[in-house]
Design goal:
Length: 316
Amino acid sequence: MATTSFLASTAIFFISLSVVSLLPSAHSADFSVGYKESAVPKSDLDLLEFPLNLEYLEAEFFLFGALGYGLDKVDPSLAEGGPSPIGGKKANLDTLTSDIILQFAYQEVGHLKAIKKTVKGFPRPQLDLSASMFAKVIDKAFGKPLNPPFDPYANSINFLIASYLIPYVGLTGYVGANPKLQGAISKRLVAGLLGVESGQDAVIRALLYEHATDDVSPYQLVAADFAERISGLRNTLGRSGWKDEGLVVPVEYGAEGKIIGNVLAGDKFSVAFARTPEEILRIVYGSGNESIPGGFFPKGGNGNIAKSYLHTAKLY
Ligand SMILES: *[C@@H]1O[C@H](CO)[C@@H](O)[C@H](O)[C@H]1NC(C)=O
C-alpha cells in the first residue's frame, strides 16, 4: 500500500516535472510561429481585424462593469490612442457575477492581444457604454420606453441582460468569418476566439436561464422577456432572418423541435448561426444600416470593412 502510493507520487512528480519543462518552450513556439502577420494571407487581414471592434467593446464593458475603469488604466497601449469610452462605470454586482465578469474582462484583453499579434489592427474606436445608450436599445427591443429607463449597471441581473447583448454578436461573426479564411493561422485564431466567446455567451445565458421566470425589478417583465426581445431586435436589425433566439422559444425552434428551453442558441441542427460583418454593424450601430453609425459605436467601427461603409455614407 505504502509502496504503491510512493510509486504513484513519484510518477506524478516526474510527470509534472516533464509537463512543466515542456510548457515554456511549447508556449513560446506557439507565439513565434503562430503569430506573425507575414504568415497571414492578405485576403484574411480585414476579416481578422474587423472583430477588434467587438473585442474592444467587450473588453471595455466588462472591465468597467467589474472594476470601474477600462483599458486606459489596465493596458493603455492596447487602445493605441483611441478615444476613451463614454459612460462606462462599475456595476453593482454580487460576488459571483463580479468574479465571472472580471474573468471575461481579462479574457477580452487577451483576445485583443491575440489579434494584434497576428495582424496590425487599429486603435480603439469611440465606444458608448452609457446607461442611457443601453436604455435606448432596450426601449427599442420592447417597442416602448421602460419606466424607469433600464440601467445596465444597477445590479447583477441587469448587467447580465446587458451582457446578453454583446459576446453573442461576436460569436456569430466568428462563425461567419471562418469559411472565408484562407490561412491555417487565421483559422486557428478564429476558432480559438470563437471557443471562448461561445463559452462566455453560454455562461451569461445559463446565469440568466436560472432566473428566466424571475421578475426584473421594477418592471412587470421576466428575464426571458428581455432575452426574447433583444434577440428579436437583433434579428430585425441584422435584416438577414432568424439568427438569434431567446432563453425560451416556440417548440419548433428548440433543439430537434422538441423542447422550449433554449439555454444555447442554434439552428435546426443546433449549429451556431453565422453573421457577416455588415449584419454585425447593423446590429451594434442599432441603425439596421452598416452605413449609419450609432449605438455602441457613435462614430462607427474602425478598420477597412467598417470604414468602407462609412465612406459611402459620406458621399451622400
Ligand atoms: C443605408 O444608409 C445609406 C446612407 O445613408 C443609404 O444610402 C442606404 O439606402 C441605406 N440602406 C438601407 C437598406 O436603408
